[in-house]
Each structure stands twice: as structure tokens, then as C-alpha cells.
Design goal:
- Its EC number is 2.7.1.100.
- Pathway: Amino-acid biosynthesis; L-methionine biosynthesis via salvage pathway; S-methyl-5-thio-alpha-D-ribose 1-phosphate from S-methyl-5'-thioadenosine (hydrolase route): step 2/2.
- One of its GO terms (biological process) is L-methionine salvage from methylthioadenosine.
- By secondary structure, this protein is of the alpha+beta class.
- Helix content is 52%, strand content 12%.
- The chain has helices at residues 9-18, 75-90, 119-124, 132-146, 154-162, 167-176, 195-203, 205-220, 255-272, 280-312, 316-320, 324-349, 355-358, 363-383, 390-400; strands at 30-33, 40-46, 53-59, 62-63, 67-71, 98-102, 107-110, 117-118, 224-226, 235-238, 241-244, 251-253.
- The strands form four sheets. A five-stranded antiparallel β-sheet has the order 1-2-3-7-6, with helices on both faces.
- It binds 5-S-methyl-5-thio-alpha-D-ribofuranose (SR1) and magnesium ion (MG).
- Magnesium ion is lined by residues 37, 229, 234, 246.
Length: 401
Amino acid sequence: MSLYHPLNEQEAIAIAKSLPGFFDAHAELACREIGDGNLNLVFHITDPESGTSLIMKQALPYAKVVGESWPLSLDRARIESEALRKQEELAPGLVPKVYHYDGDLALTIMEDLSDHVIMRRGLMDGSRYPEFAAHISTFLANTLFYTSDLGLNQQEKKRLSGRFINPDLCKITEDLIFDDPYTESSNNNYEASIADCAAALREDNALHLEVARLRAKFLTQGQALLHGDLHTGSVFVTPGSTKAIDPEFAYFGPMGYDIGAVIANLLLNYAGHEHWSADERERAAHRAYLLDTVTSVWTLFESKFRALWDAHCVDRLFRQTRGYQDAYMQDLLRDTAGYAGCKMVRRIVGLAHVADIDAIPDATARERAQRMALRIGTDLIKNGRQVGTIGQVLQAVQEGV
Ligand code: SR1
Ligand code: MG
């Protein structure tokens, strides 16, 4: 008989109390369900007396954002907890610590990061995170290199990839990112004011050709263990700390998908700053900060990844063949640009949007931001395979503005 059922707050407290070494047996714990994402329950449990706290995340057997008509495997909770543990091993301090995983309840108990803010919210408020590019580039370089055939024994990699077969969550991405925006789909969700843009996305065969290439790589290229959903809502920050959360979409896929996700979400905020900074100078300064951050994310990632390759590549041919590393990095930048474009487009016309754009109260400013994001996104998709430098990627942004 299955023990699984969605927990209520009292049950969450009882489980928290049973954790060895955490709370006093007589503590009066407070619990709040704070999940505001698309898929899960999230309980925040605190002991006001001692200040000790934790997060309890439980997968629901369906996509919360849609309802029970969209069933989802609970195995994603295991995948998330194993991904967090692997990421902590490879990029220490850059993910929340996992204290406990319960497979029967699809429950992960982890570090409370309430002293951090969700990066998307922080960026909407105009905050800057001077360490973010350094931290996220380390996270990306370490997790991607050491789970790829470059940094991991190739038989071990095959065994590890078996732990991250994630069909339900990959299907969400395959549909929502690499199909729906380019066809009439009941999943799509956009305002009437940009119906002309949505129609143009459906009719552009040159665009479809590039999306098809990116989709094919997403389906077939098990290059490294990805976070799989690395948008700015999956990153907790303070000025000096960065934590990547929520890797339930983790699977072995193309590296550029993770790097592209980070860049896309910085650029969605860029487009949203049609509104979030009222003052023109402030807006220009925030946008310059975002573009600098995009440049730093890539350049720091590239130098760290190349350094890992030079020092720790496990494959003789990859290590010794002159020109192979340069060719690999160029492909990776091109994939990054293309995936960044796909991730921007889906957030404007697809099912799940982002607050950077959707929360703009003024309809005219919101429409301007949506159109800008679509111009930048489609430009990145269509020209991604031509770029050779991060500067050329940013040129697509300037052209889309
Ligand atoms: C049905 S889930 C919609 C989106 O939320 C997640 O954060 C992923 O980005 C997914 O595509
Ligand atoms: Mg998530």
C-alpha cells in the first residue's frame, strides 16, 4: 500500500519533530505552506524559540499550475534530492543542503534559505548581485564538466545518467519550450495585443528549422547532468551568496541549455525594465548591469571550464587533439545562444510566464516588454549558430531592443 499523500501543515510539523538532532521534542513549531511555484508543496517550518528552521518540499502527483489533469511522476523528488547532493559535491556551497529524503512521501527536507531572496524578485526591485556571475559560472563549470565525458569516467557517466532518466519533466520542456510556441496549442497563453507576434512565430520556417535543431539536441545529446530549469526563480541570492534550487528537471542533456537559461532570464529582466525602473538613467544603468552580467557569466564560465579541461580531462583524444577544445567551446556558445532564445520566447507566448514581464501593471509598457523579449529571443534562435563571441550574442540583444 502506498504511504504517499499530500501533507498538511500538522503532518509536516510531526515529521520535522521526528528528525533526529533538529528540534526539541517539546518545541512549538510554526509551519506555513509557501509554495508559489508550478509543481510542488513547500513547507517552511521554524522553532521561534531557537530560531532553527528548515524547508520541506513535497512533490504532488500532478502539475499544480494546471491541476490533476496533468499527472507527473513523484520520482522527480528523488531526482531533485540526488541532483542537489551531486551538485553540493561538485560545487560546494552553491545549493541548499539536503538533510533528509523520504521516497514514500516524495519529500525532501533541506536548508532554509529565508535570509536570501529569489533573484527574479531582487532584479525586479533593481538590486544588483556582484558575486552572482562568479558563483553561477563556478556552479555551471563544475557541475557540467564533472558530469560530462570530459571530466567523468565514461562508464561511470553512463551509470550516473541512469539515475536521472526524467521522462515526465523532460516532456514538459519538450512541449512547452520546443513545440507549443510554434504551433496552435491549448497550452499557449498570450495577450490579444501580441497575437500578431504569436502568429509570426507559427509561420516562420527559418525559425522552426533552428528550433528543430535545438529540440533534437535536447532530446538526444546526453552531454552532462543539467540542473534543467535554471531560471532566476530557481536561484536564491544575497549580495554575497548564490544558491541554485529546484533541480527537479535534472537529466543528462546539452550543456548550453543550462547556461542559456541563466542568460535568458537576465534578458527577460532586461526587457521587463521597460517598467521596473521609472527613471531613465536608472533603467539604463540596470540594463548595463544585466548585459555586463551576461558577459561575465559566459566569460567566467568559459575560463573555468577550459581550466578544468586542461587540468582534469579524462579522455586522451579530447585532451590531446589540438583545436578540439576551441571547437567544443564554440559549439557550446552557439547552443547557449539558441537555448537562451527558446527560453525567452516560451515565457511570452507559452504556458508559464515570468513576473519580470507579467507583473508590469501598465498594458502598454507590458506589451513593449513582451515584443522586445520576442525580438531578442527570435534573433538569438535564428542567429545563434553564427555567433563566435559573447559580444556577438549581445549584438542580437541590441538589435532586438
Ligand atoms: C508545468 S511546469 C511549467 C514550468 O515551470 C517550471 O519552472 C519549468 O520552467 C516549467 O517549464
Ligand atoms: Mg521550479
